[in-house]
Amino acid sequence: xxxxxxxxxxxxxxxxxxxxxxxxxxxxxxxxxxxxxxxxxxxxxxxxxxxxxxxxxxxxxxxxxxxxxxxxxxxxxxxxxxxxxxxxxxxxxxxxxxxxxxxxxxxxxxxxxxxxxxxxxxxxxxxxxxxxxxxxxxxxxxxxxx
Length: 146
Prior knowledge:
About 40% of the residues lie in helices and about 25% in strands. With about 150 residues, it is of the alpha/beta class. It has one domain: YqgF/RNase H-like domain (Nucleotidyltransferase, domain 5), CATH 3.30.420.140. It is globular, with a radius of gyration of 14 Å.
């Protein structure tokens, strides 16, 4: 990992949408990006790789949907497959997996408490989950140079 600060991109892989969030250049705070509507693996991977280049990302954090027991199930396997394919398109960018248990539930609750309408919640839940994944990663010191 580079000793230089840089942005971190979080990816929350959903079946219909992909939530995205990016850190500030110092790796302290997470900000939401647009929600990517799934249009096929190749197009999704191309879009995320292009975004990583545009934002000068040095690390991509891929949400890993573990079961409550901590075991990996089909969703985690799908995230790992997608992550491996994404890593092949990220020249010089490190890919890390991050436990995302309950982030979607927390994202939904956060939006409900903020009185976000149901239709808007459905559209934004993946992006809010990506922000939560990224902030958790940053708070745990993930962006700190090794």
